[in-house]
Design brief:
Blueprint lengths: L9 E3 L13 E3 L14 H15 L15 H7 L5 H8 L6 E2 L5 E2 L18 E2 L15 H28 L3 H22 L2 E5 L1 H10 L5 E2 L8 E13 L7 E5 L2 E6 L3 E11 L7 E10 L15 E11 L1 E4 L2 E3 L8 H17 L5 E5 L22 E6 L1 H7 L20 E4 L2 E5 L9 E5 L2 E3 L6 E2 L11
Parallel strand pairs: 6-8, 6-17, 18-22
Antiparallel strand pairs: 1-2, 1-3, 4-5, 7-14, 8-11, 9-10, 11-12, 12-13, 14-15, 16-17, 18-21, 19-20
Helix pairs in contact: 1-3, 4-5, 6-7
Length: about 475
């Protein structure tokens, strides 16, 4: 009998606990319970209480145990004899036919169930189906699921942190208690951003153009932001971002929460919160970076989404003026290296998105399976719709040219043939609306220089973060 942890896959022939869904086979884990479509957010609590009740009835737990001393899921099942774990799982999940799926049969992404049906929740560790390519698990229609999973996972983590603070105070560790409260507040701020965010799926070509254009962006002003808060999920990751810029990460392994990790991490998504200026305060832009959870060897949080993991959060007042690789804030303060690359990429992406001649934005058609039943905390007026951001088709053709090799004549002689070449675009500050010392950023796009009909030499795009 394999060990049972919060990430262990449980196969449910009926999937009865997922209220609101038709009864069909599925796979779920305790860590993801309540994060999927139609499932009650309180289901995870119900599972834990049923497991504790089962253990108390069999004298594995003492009835007099205080609530704060009750072990968490992993420790609870470690106390249960191996021969009785299946019985405990069946009682907790309220399914007499539930099975514990051995770890080799599990994958990190949602997929098809062991019986051939589709999994009920994105991000749940699912039984691997070798006939499924898994491409649908990372696509524009799944962005709504990712956002819901991030929000629910964040609320659970904030509750976990807040619940530990009184216990720390009871033993006199006031510094640790305050740190737990502050961490819970930050997680809730992130949840609020995700729950109110406009959702975007960014193509690889669009991300590459934004990275190239960010290299000489003159300023980050917050103009052209499509919404005050948003979540951008990238079809292909941005270059690996050095976690050393924020002092490295502290990963979690059960009770250990300070395992150092300083490797660079690819950026698969980012969220922003743009706070407007008020009462004499400057506008502030807060950006959170995410990677696929499977890219890290251990979780960043005790409870987190199995689709995306938050690994860095930066905040800066606006506007920020860039001079080469140095950024200066509105009061003359120097920005750290962690801010420059991320701020310039996001501002470049916003500015490009506002130009319909360069970027084409389309909404996923209503009625798509990813949008059905997605009420939650979002507004019913389209808050669940995903904007697909891609380069304009004409520009796709413009960038698809290949390098021609025509240096050798048929008689074997060498020459330098006449060719056209691509001149790199640049930024321009244009007057716009009310008087402003900065104006509005406008990208003057690449253009071709040369005679019509001659071979065209495409230029490579810069694919690296802008850093001091």
């Amino acid at each position: 009998m394999p060990e049972v942890t919060e990430h262990t896959c449980i196969y449910l022939p009926d999937l009865r606990p997922a209220r609101g869904r038709s009864s069909r086979p599925g796979v779920v884990s305790f860590a993801c319970a309540g994060l999927g479509w139609g499932a009650s957010p309180g289901w995870r609590t119900e599972l834990y209480l049923r497991a504790c009740g089962w253990a108390r009835a069999r004298e594995i737990l003492d009835y007099d145990t205080e609530d704060e001393d009750i072990p968490l899921w992993d420790e609870l099942f470690a106390r249960i004899p191996e021969s009785r774990r299946r019985e405990a799982v069946r009682s907790a999940f309220d399914d007499p036919d539930a099975l514990i799926v051995p770890p080799p049969a599990c994958s990190e992404r949602g997929g098809r169930s062991a019986a051939g049906g589709s999994g009920w929740s994105y991000g749940v560790r699912a039984v691997r189906d070798e006939s499924e390519s898994g491409s649908d698990a990372w696509s524009a229609p799944q962005v709504v699921d990712m956002a819901r999973s991030l929000a629910m996972g964040g609320r659970l983590e904030a509750s976990r942190l807040a619940a530990r603070a009184p216990r720390a105070r009871s033993v006199g560790d006031l510094v640790y208690a305050d740190a737990l409260d502050a961490a819970a507040v930050k997680v809730l701020e992130s949840v609020t951003t995700i729950e109110t965010a406009s959702l975007h799926w960014v193509s690889a070509s669009m991300a590459r153009l934004a990275m190239d254009a960010s290299q000489d962006l003159p300023a980050a002003t917050g103009q052209d932001a499509p919404a005050p808060s948003g979540l951008m999920v990238l079809a292909e990751p941005l270059p690996a971002w050095s976690t050393a810029l924020v002092g490295g990460l502290a990963l979690c392994d059960g009770p250990r929460t300070n395992i150092p990790y300083i490797e660079a991490v690819p950026v698969d998504a980012l969220a922003w919160q743009l706070s407007p200026p008020r009462r004499g305060r400057k506008a502030r832009l807060t950006i959170e970076l995410f990677c696929r959870s499977s890219r890290l060897p251990l979780p960043v949080r005790g409870l987190q989404s199995e689709s995306l993991a938050s690994f860095a959060r930066i905040s800066s007042r606006l506007p920020v003026i860039f001079a080469g690789t140095v950024g200066t804030g509105p009061d003359g303060e120097d920005l750290g290296a962690a801010h420059v690359g991320v701020l310039s990429w996001l501002q470049a992406a916003w500015s490009l998105m506002s130009d319909p001649g360069i970027v084409q934005t389309s909404m996923i058609p209503e009625g798509h399976p990813a949008e059905k039943g997605a009420a939650g905390s979002r507004e019913a007026d389209g808050g669940n719709r995903v904007a697909v951001v891609d380069l304009h088709p004409d520009r796709h053709r413009f960038l698809s040219v290949t390098r021609h090799e025509g240096d050798v004549e048929p008689d074997g002689s060498h020459q330098h043939p006449v060719r056209s070449h691509v001149v790199r675009g640049h930024w321009d500050l244009q007057s716009h609306g009310t008087p402003s010392p900065l104006g509005r950023l406008q990208w003057v796009d690449d253009h071709v220089c040369g005679l019509p009909g001659t071979p065209l030499v495409a230029r490579p795009h810069v694919w690296a973060w802008r850093h001091p």
